[in-house]
Amino acid sequence: MARKETITKNEILNTAFQMARQEGISQVSARTLAARAGCSTQPIFRLYKNMEELGNELYDKAIEFFGDYYENFPKTHETPFVDLGLAYIRFAQEEQQLFKLLFVSENRHGKSLYDLLNGDRSTVVKEIGNAKAFGCKDPGGMFMRMWIFIHGSACMSLTDDYDLPENETVKLLEEFYRVFRNA
Question: pLDDT tens digits for 160-178?
Fold first, then answer.
């Protein structure tokens, strides 16, 4: 009689994701993952040909997690890019390890920052469309200008150097939008 498998691919992936989320991707190795999942390394390498393959699925899961995070983030501001900026900065504050993995890592698995933000949900495309509808002459250029502030603020929050309250961040984002709108 064949031995029943006790751990699934989904369980391995979810365990690796939780490790990356809590401790950082550098802590996810075959041995540490096996220990956390309560198995040997054998099931990991039966389900994945190598750790790189697992890493690719883990990265995709992190992208999906960010997409869900943004989708569920309250959208309460009319000014384009404000809610996206707030969500991105808060994601950096609340999910530091995943933020580093997705947006600060040297290895983005062949994806640009624009690809990561857009995903299947066209997040940036929608914001650029909103800016155009609000009369912005160069919405793509507007995005790049706004993004320098948004990404910088999020990165600063990783080192506790960004401590503006949300209402101040909103004021700055709205002010930048007004200034850059006709640039």
Answer: 999 899 999 999 999 999 8
Q: Is residue 53 part of a domain?
A: no
Cα separation of the two ends of the chain: 72
Residues 93, 14 share a domain: no
Residues 75, 156: one domain? yes
Indicate whether 40 and 73 sit together in one domain: no
pLDDT for the residue 4: 53
Both tokens of residue 47? 């389900």
For helices 139-158 and 82-94, the axis angle rounded to 10 degrees is 20
Q: What is the pLDDT of residue 123?
A: 80
Token pair for residue 112? Answer: 């640009």
Residue listed under structure tokens 């039966």: 46
Distance (Å, rounded) from C-alpha 134 to C-alpha 57? 38
Burial category of 138 from C-beta neighbours within 10 Å (exposed 0-12, middle 13-18, buried 19 and up) = middle
Work out how many domains the chain is built from and give that number. Answer: 2
Determine the Cα–Cα distance for residues 46 and 53; give it in Å rounded to an integer.
12
Q: How many CA atoms lie within 13 A of 81 on its CB side?
A: 30
Q: Which two tokens stand for residue 7?
A: 């751990």
Are residues 167 and 125 part of one domain?
A: yes
40: left (phi over 0), alpha (psi -120 to 50) or beta: beta
Contact 79, 176 (CB under 8 A): no
State the residue range of the domain holding 31: 1-48
